[in-house]
Amino acid sequence: MTRLGLPDTVRACLFDMDGVLTRTATVHEAAWKETFDAFLRRRDGAAFRPFDHTDYDRYVDGMPRADGVRSFLASRGIHLPEGADDDPPDHDTVHGLGNRKNGLVLEKIKELGVEAFPGSVRYAQAARDAGLRRAVVSSSANCRAVLAAAGIEDLFEVRIDGLVAADRHLPGKPHPDTFLAAAHDLGTPPEAAAVFEDALAGMEAGRAGGFGFVVGVNRADQAGELRRHGADVVVDDLAELLGEAP
């Protein structure tokens, strides 16, 4: 293992954004909850069962927006029309609910700003200084704006986000395709790349893609689940891989 906590064979780092680089996972979870609870309340009345943190971890976290809508609703036995990409946020369709959630995220980011995890910033800087290639892999269509707002966009050479995935027709996590695309764009084979993820879907993508090392970032007290879903190592903060305090 090198001083970066990675095998010597690793030449590239592929970072998820929400929850790994930036403290935006809580913003996304809050937006999903507001979206789904309003829909379920309209549908089921006062007896509705709210969307909770377990739902977020199991059915939504790390997935492309429309996949998250389908996944959670299927868990409740609900199936909605797909609708169109530009459905208004008050339409009860897959894309309508997804657009409602996205609008809420943008409002919350504008209101609260974006904070990068200091330990993750130091780690990305150390990877750069050590000559490792670096990419961001996110299902978010707002990835570039979030990185810019956090002041860390220049730390990464490649960005595979929701917009790039849609343009290239890449399925999202838990499929490995977006991570594989990032490794390809960096000129690095999967076995020489490390994946950094906080979501269970991201762990599965790392395992499915044959990557050289998978780091689980335990932001949601689920270390055991991260390991069971494919992590080679689990840390609470990337600073631990540098031998530092968060």
From TrEMBL:
Transmembrane segments: none annotated. Belongs to the HAD-like hydrolase superfamily. CbbY/CbbZ/Gph/YieH family. Keywords: Hydrolase. It comes from Streptomyces hesseae. The keyword Ligase does not apply. The lineage of its organism: Bacteria, Bacillati, Actinomycetota, Actinomycetes, Kitasatosporales. GO terms for molecular function: hydrolase activity. This is Beta-phosphoglucomutase family hydrolase. The keyword Hydrolase applies. InterPro entries: B-phosphoglucomutase_hydrolase, HAD-like_sf, HAD-like_SPP, HAD-SF_hydro_IA, HAD_sf, PGP-like_dom2. NCBIfam families: HAD-SF-IA-v3, PGMB-YQAB-SF. It holds the Pfam family Hydrolase.
